Structures are given as structure tokens and as C-alpha cells.
Amino acid sequence: MLTFGIKIVYLDYSIDTEVLMTRYASQLHAWQSIGRFGLVGLKKLLLPSNYVNVYFLNFLTYTLFVLSVLAICFLLYRIIGPQIPQLALAAIPAVMIPSAINAEQFNFVLQSFEVALALFIIVGAVYFAWLSFHEHILGSYFVALFGVVLGFGTYQSLVPFFIALTLMIMVLELTINQTGYTIKNYIKFGGYFISLLLLGLISNLLINKVIDVIFHIQATSYLTQLINWGKLPVQQVLRTIVGGMLHTFFPRDNYHSYMLFIEMIALLVLFIFKRQKNKLLLALTTLVLVLSPFLLLIMLGNQPVIRAEMPTYPFVSAFLFFYLLWQVKKQMWLYSAGLLLMFSYSFFASSATANLLFSEHMKYEQDVQLANRVQQQIDNLHLDHSNEYALYFVGQSPAKGPAIRPVQVLGRSYFEWDSITESGVSSRASGFMQTLGYIYRPLDEKEIKLARQYANKLTVFPTKNAIKVVGKVIIIRLS
């Protein structure tokens, strides 16, 4: 509640959610065109209406997110057993939940519930796969496969998360079974989960292809255009990857911390002094786990949007913290210092994320006020059948004030998004105004070209001559 309670109290929404509110079928079509059949299916099955209740969706989102984190704790308990240090286990929610990356992802209300549900499903799928491997229950494997297919089909960023969960289990089993865990066991277990991963990916590809053919949906390059491999020189791609990693380890943003780097150094020290069979194998597996948040970066050769790091980056940071506490629990001073650091980190991370969400709320309030002021001036024009007109906005109007802290999406106004495109902020701003009850039709290309000819003749809103009507287009100059 300290971190995300503001999203339950205040019913804000941001970019793309207005599309689901006003063009429901179009948004579902767009999701399917980028291979998210699971997202479309869950939306149609559970919320088959374009009526977007922000409170309802946010409540479900954050409830499922917390349940997913608790499910990870349960998975750890099942693997390690009753001897698991319970205070150390608190590192999972304490480090994972307050990450600002989660706020960036779940700010997309149009899909937040389904993504949170898919997150829960993936954790459940990994648990059933682990159960199937150790207890030889074939039915559990198919339950896991179903969950993996549905999860991957809902949000592609859950693929690295599945891999990270698998690596977590391998690290735990190598640590627990110090004498009985052979290379053969390791390969067998890894192969079991790799088969699940490959079947999940192949099934997703086939299902999406069948749906696209049946419903005549043209796949878009929204995701594939992000791939730099084969488009740019290899050296440039490698520099991008290394730069992205360094930026994460030594951050200068609101989303990352030095936690992952500190954990990596602490693990290095731990493995140097740790006496254990298969220590090299354990160290290599842990290293791959540390690098798992960068899987999308490596695969694309390009820095993905920050929300794509949810949930892998927060999860890996949380698990490594738990693992270190677990390993030093007998050194009471280290264990106590670690717990103090954990609770301190959790408090300051919660504060930073809550600040970003408050900034988002203040931005939303300003957007509503600006939309109302624009509509008031349009009303003063006394146009008949104003819903037959289209809006063309010139320039942009970012949110302002000491409470505003704009980052990638949070804190960014509807009246500044897409400002560099030919139609500018018009589509976003008009869509947002439509959600407030101010109905206008979409612009066409001819009207955009016509409106641009008059743009420089207007003064800047809210002055008297900031709005002009040309044919059936209302031109508003914001800057």
C-alpha cells in the first residue's frame, strides 16, 4: 500500500488506455498483430467489454502482483524446506515489489491485469514443472506447458522471467544437494525445462499463425523492428549491449539501483570462500542468472523499453538478496546487517516509486484541466454538431510544476506524446478528451496537411486566437 496505494485511491490512466476505452476492437487487433494471443484471449474471456473500470483493474493488478510474489516465496519454501530463514525470505517482497519498473509496467491499465495474471500463471507453471520433474507426474508437466504457452502469449517479456525462475531452481538445488547433484542431474533438469521453454515458444508461434490466418490479421514489425542484429555493424551492436549492462549496474535513472552490482560482488566473495562440490557449476549458473535481466537486450542488440524489464530485473535482484542472506545466516552480524540493508532499501525504493506515481497523478490532473479549458474555448465557438469535427493540435504541452518528475511514460502528458509525428499529439489528446466525454472524429491525412498551413498563424493557447476552425477541423496551437 505504501508504494502502490495511490493507484487504488486515484483512478488515473495514461497512454494507450484511451485506445481500449474508445476503440476496443482496434486495440485487440493491434495486440494480436504483435503475437499476444494470450492477452487478447484473457481480455475477451475475463473482461469482454470496452468498459474500462480503472479502480477494478488496478485492484486486480496489484492483488495478483502481490500473490505472484508470495507464490515465489512458496516455491522457495517447497524447494528449501522448513529450514528456510523466514526473515531472509522477506527479501523477495521487500526488494521485488517496490521497484519503479513495476510502476512503469502496470501504469498501462489497458493490459496491467492480464500481465499480472500471466505473471502469476508463469510462477505456477514453473512450480508444476518442478513438481513434475521430481515426482514424475506427467499431468503436472502438461499443466506447466499450458501455463507457459498462455503466459508467453500474453506478454513476451515473461520469457526471460521463466528462464530466470528456472535458473533460480538450479542454483537452489546445486546449493542444497552439495554431494548428490551430479553433472548428469544438472543436464537432465536443464533439458527438462528447456523442452518446456521450446515447446512454449513453438506453440506460441503456431497459435498466433493460425489465428492470424483465420482472422486475416497482418503481423506487424512492432517488435521485430527493434532487432539491431544484421542491421547495424556487430561492433556497434556489442557496444549497445555493453552500454546497456553498464547503465543497469551503474545507473543514473529512477528505475535501477546499485543493488545488482553489489550483489554480484558479494556473490563473487561468497563463492571464493565457499567450500562445496560443483562450486564452479554453481558459480556459472548464478552468473547466467545475474545476466538474465539482459536477455532481451542481448537478443535484440538494442535497449528495450524499461517496462520490458518487468518482472525479471526486480525478481533477480530480490532472489540474489535472499540467497546471500540465506548463505550468511550463521554469521549473525552479517545476517543482521543484511536485514537492515534490506528494510532500508525497501523503504527508500517504495518512497522513490511512490513519488513517481504521485507525479503521474499530478500530470493526469493537469491533463484533465487542460482538456476542460480547451473544450471551454471550443464551446465558446458555438459550433453545431461539434462531434462532426476533428481536433488538430499544434505543438505540445508537457505537465509542469515541482511535483512533476517525467520519466519514460510516468509523468508524460497526453498533450506531449507523439509530438514529432505528422499529426502531432492530436490522436492521443483527442482520444483522451473522448474518454472525458468530449467526442470528436479522427483526422484524415488531407485534413492534417490543410491544418498545418494555418498552424503558424495562431497564437499559443490559452490566448484568444489560439483556436481556429478550418472546414471541419478545429486547430489548437499548444506551443
Global structural class: mainly alpha
Secondary structure: helix percent = 55-70%
Q: How many β-strands, per DSSP?
A: 3
How would you state the average pLDDT, rounded?
93
Give keywords.
479 residues; mainly alpha; 63% helix; 3% strand; elongated
Question: How would you portray this structure in words?
Answer:
It is built from 20 helices and 3 strands. By secondary structure, it is mostly helical. 42% of the residues are buried. The chain has a 3-stranded mixed β-sheet, with helices on both faces.
Write the layout of secondary structure elements.
Blueprint: H1 5-9, H2 17-22, H3 24-33, H4 37-46, H5 54-80, H6 86-89, H7 91-96, H8 100-106, H9 109-135, H10 138-154, H11 158-176, H12 183-214, H13 234-249, H14 259-273, H15 279-291, H16 295-300, H17 312-327, H18 332-379, E1 390-394, H19 426-435, H20 445-454, E2 467-470, E3 473-477
Parallel strand pairs: 1-3
Antiparallel strand pairs: 2-3
Helix pairs in contact: 3-4, 4-10, 5-9, 9-10, 9-11, 10-12, 11-12, 11-15, 11-17, 14-15, 14-17, 17-18
In brief, what are we looking at here?
This protein has 20 helices and three strands.
